[in-house]
Amino acid sequence: MGGNKRIFLATVAAALLGAGTVAATAGEVDNYSPVTQQRLENPEPGNWLLYRRTYDGHGFSPLKQINVDNVKSLEPVWTFSTGVGEGHEAPPMVNNGIMYVATPYGQVLALNAKTGDLIWRYKHKLPEDLFQLHPTSRGVAMWGDKLFLAATDDHLIAIDAKTGKEVWNTKVQDYQKGQYMTLEPLVVNGKVMVGGSGGEFGVRGYVAAFDADSGKELWRTYTIPAPGEPGSNTWQGDAWKTGGGSVWITGTYDPKRNIAYWGVGNAAPWPGDQHPGDNLFTSSVIALNPDTGKMVGYHQYHQNDSWDWDEIDSPMLIKMNHNGQPFDGLVHPGRDGYLWVLKQDDQGIHFVSGKPFVGQNAFKGLDESGRPIVDPEHKPTTGKNVSFCPSLWGGKDWPAAAYNPDTKLLYIPANNNMCESLEGKKQKLVVGQIWLGADADNAKLLPQKQHIGELQAWDPETGKQAWMHPFQGSQLFGSVLTTAGDLVFVGGTNDRMFRAFNGKTGELLWQQKTNSGIMGMPVAYEVDGTEYVAIQSGWGVDAQRIQDMLAKTDMKVNPDVPQGGVVWVFAVKH
Fold this sequence. Notes:
Elements: H1 3-17, E1 21-22, H2 37-41, E2 60-61, E3 74-81, E4 93-95, E5 98-103, E6 107-112, E7 118-123, E8 141-143, E9 146-150, E10 155-160, E11 166-171, E12 186-188, E13 191-195, E14 206-211, E15 217-222, E16 252-254, E17 259-263, E18 284-288, E19 295-300, E20 316-322, E21 325-333, E22 338-345, E23 348-356, E24 363-366, E25 372-374, E26 385-388, E27 402-404, E28 409-415, E29 418-423, E30 444-447, E31 451-459, E32 464-472, E33 480-483, E34 487-490, E35 497-502, E36 508-513, E37 523-527, E38 530-537, H3 541-550, E39 566-572
């Protein structure tokens, strides 16, 4: 090997380990298109500028060059190895031919979206003593000429989108106290909003906003009220200080009302008898004014959470009809296994309907206000082994559903037939250490059938299921993309497949085996008149934890799903 080549490789290796540095392969993006509020509210069809492409959270692409007639000719056109393992969950963001990919361990890649060539690589140096259960990233946000990364050491970082150089770095909370971040930030009018993860460490959740230019904190709203604040009467003693309520996933936004909607995680620790009361605003959707952080509405999906059913997915904003009347709907397929339909208006959030989309035995039903009627026989408590359905991973975990305004169907990556037994356990809270309040080592998955994963299609207006595709011997733990080509794309299974379905009928039309299992979020974009579909393949985190537990059941699945992150990009062969 020549001396210059050795120096080059050594420089790249050092860059991958360095703090906020750019690799020796760094270039610069030419003719970058600044991201404005107007573009975020009306994104060009060929770009993917927000977590779910649009503020309403639909996960829908209006592109239809790839469709039900030609998707069978879809093939890989380029791949790119990220160089790291663990769960790759972020959507590849695309802005006029430039792709930005966030990976686990604080890395951001800028790639030519047509060729896959690396333009620059950013790597945030993480502390050696950092530990969290979800060492991943769900994407970078865009505003102006900057990207925004919420790092797992609880720093919010602004990166120059053209050069990959760090612009500012703001400490949000203290990772040594169990605080960290995994979400893609949400930007509205130059305010970069993030939420804190770490409910399993006994933290107090929040949403906070920062100035895109300076990184200065503008406001912070806690998801658990302090004494004297609205909702504080739903907590006893000092439980509010360590009550959980994490915000793991990017919010949705209604420009008409200037409201951002955020999903809030479960109460901590897991057993409800260790934190008596309804525990607002855990397991809820909260509505915040992005200018001030003021809470202007909420709905709690279930009170006194005892199942680890984080309702962290923010609701989709869908225009609907109910009893012949049009309304602005908030639709949420919940971790508690219910498909929730809520109504948003200028007076707040109102319950419309809720029904199970998977087997559910913890609730006997809902009352007129949408409050669950809980069956105490299936509610975990301290000192008692209790079984419940669905499992703690829920009917649908963090992977996103998608809504197609053409088919008017909602596509849910569901996990059915997967129950669990769990015993609550009194544990002392040690700051910065796991605090579940349960004997997790003795927890058991209880599969009811030989299939768990289900891709489901629902009509949210009628509450009727249109079709369902089961996956034998596997969970379904990946986000969904739907397109104007009447297609539904999803990974999420332990056979490493990426699949395309007919959105109207559920027919499997195409599949491609990838390097690893796919947890990530598919996107569609266009460059020079060609439509592409992109996905990150990289198994890990909760998908692997489910895999390990299923291997101990009668299903006897192989726990060994290959690791390693690769960006895959597909187009139709001409």
